[in-house]
Amino acid sequence: xxxxxxxxxxxxxxxxxxxxxxxxxxxxxxxxxxxxxxxxxxxxxxxxxxxxxxxxxxxxxxxxxxxxxxxxxxxxxxxxxxxxxxxxxxxxxxxxxxxxxxxxxxxxxxxxxxxxxxxxxxxxxxxxxxxxxxxxxxxxxxxxxxxxxxxxxxxxxxxxxxxxxxxxxxxxxxxxxxxxxxxxxxxxxxxxxxxxxxxxxxxxxxxxxxxxxxxxxxxxxxxxxxxxxxxxxxxxxxxxxxxxxxxxxxxxxxxxxxxxxxxxxxxxxxxxxxxxxxxxxxxxxxxxxxxxxxxxxxxxxxxxxxxxxxxxxxxxxxxxxxxxxxxxxxxxxxxxxxxxxxxxxxxxxxxxxxxxxxxxxxxxxxxxxxxxxxxxxxxxxxxxxxxxxxxxxxxxxxxxxxxxxxxxxxxxxxxxxxxxxxxxxxxxxxxxxxxxxxxxxxxxxxxxxxxxxxxxxxxxxxxxxxxxxxxxxxxxxxxxxxxxxxxxxxxxxxxxxxxxxxxxxxxxxxxxxxxxxxxxxxxxxxxxxxxxxxxxxxxxxxxxxxxxxxxxxxxxxxxxxxxxxxxxxxxxxxxxxxxxxxxxxxxxxxxxxxxxxxxxxxxxxxxxxxxxxxxxxxxxxxxxxxxxxxxxxxxxxxxxxxxxxxxxxxxxxxxxxxxxxxxxxxxxxxxxxxxxxxxxxxxxxxxxxxxxxxxxxxxxxxxxxxxxxxxxxxxxxxxxxxxxxxxxxxxxxxxxxxxxxxxxxxxxxxxxxxx
Length: 755
Known about the structure:
GO molecular function: dioxygenase activity; metal ion binding
Radius of gyration: 31 Å
Strand content: 15-25%
Family: Belongs to the gamma-BBH/TMLD family.
Helix content: 25-40%
Number of helices: 23
Distance between the termini: 59 Å
Structural class: alpha+beta
Protein name: TauD/TfdA-like domain-containing protein
Strand order of the largest sheet: 7-8-18-11-20-9
Domain TauD/TfdA-like: 218-480
GO cellular component, one term: mitochondrion
């Protein structure tokens, strides 16, 4: 049996339903095949407000009505069988614009050869039946069929002038399926989220180990690691960089083009007379970001240390996203102010003048609506630090507060005075968090090292240094890069290595990320094994593709206290036992009975991982306990303390080092070879995992709805009872929570049944 869940749906919109379904599977009861969308009649117990489900149901009815209108309008829409039930309807204009034949898209430049506005409004597609074509891809070979890829061909009535009647458009069915989904088509695999870091974590974790210059320049896998680290943590070092003035240019151009500013395409950081930037002095340089006064500040900054013979001059770095997250937890009003009130940044010099107004904390819109609007209310229950997009902080280049309005306009004096006080109070709190010693990573850069960091996230500073003689000075050579070329290179490599690297089996990281994504999709449970894992989810045995955030292949074994498959019991081999009770030839066969030897792609950022049903049940129970406490205790947010997480990981690593196991894919199981080493399984593992199932709320930072009264959920001390025939509160006479009881009313009622 294989069970598939969309964990973001489990967390966001169907916890109760998911638990019931899991219980049914565990108890051998049948589950109906759930659709991918929640229905008012499905009995889904949701964490979303009722009005949101009502809106979703209304949208579903509107979609049904739209499909009916499309079916009745063949002059506007073409119906195509994409293997998802009834025909799906596509606009003729949409299909024509998708044509990528050599007449429409240049085969060399990949540029469009026609203008969409030239397509006649009354164009119509003459659609032929869907065809199966030869598919010799590796996935097709694994699937055991080379005829699974579908295409649809069409010619055109009233085509663009200049195109003949023989002009034919070919579109893959999988492309049309992506368009037909309610969610936006995913062109590239999702990237991992940002991860906050502290100084201690940066020093201790192997994750932050420097990357060798030679590997960076020649190995795409090393380059991918660098780009991914810049995405997740924003800071990384290269070592072994040649002592050459053009080395930093080569490092940048390995990713994309340099960003040229009035400083040039590259620039030197060393003490010079009559400096036009404080960085060109030997003075102490506080935390800042570069070029905030430009409309498009650089996304990445590169600093190559060529010489470092002077005393002092250590480089300091801190994660502004971590500071913003801490501000949200400890000073929410200040967080809101810094996300609302813009300030000015300028470069005021005889040769150049630049000015831009920015908010210190810039937020990204989310699937739950525009967070930049939602966060304006201090009581917003959204955990906003996950959606911090940029931070703007550069005290040396901050313009006077009188120039902080958009386009440097000066507000009316009364509003200006008020806003200045608000911004100043919030900025002071943020500044304190920026300078928290626990968040500052200090490094005396050595010749041959190059630091690369996200200039819109990582704040950098420098301690003062002594100016040495020529040849003994502190000399760093720097360069910038814009965001577009960085993101382009990252996406290209991410598509390659996301598919290729299957050496790891850490699907949990992606799962945790999926749990945080807002969605209205309902949990889907399948009782049949999937036909194939696809880039977007699974292909079921009936040929329908299902878009999933995460696929969990349930093995059905309780792995919390023993190996999946024991090899020795009391010194006797039991491998023959498995051949009698198990039909698949490997653990992955439990996931997909037709393709027993197909390795699941379960690296750190994959959509699939193998898990036992008992472990999944435990995970859901853990989440439900947390949600229950948040609802009952009126908790705004609950976050694992960094210290607790570090201690837990350390303990887990320690116990893993003391545990010797044989994996489920060893030769004895695949080929029933009983010469493989035995499995050792100390009882400590069982105890550790069982204890880990219990929520230790003392290890969490908890923010209550009413900060000054963590027990406000007790209300007035009485249970609120609703009259069956009215909405009257039976305890009205007790007064409001936080107020004194009205004793005169109690005196009046003392001789009645109510009292």
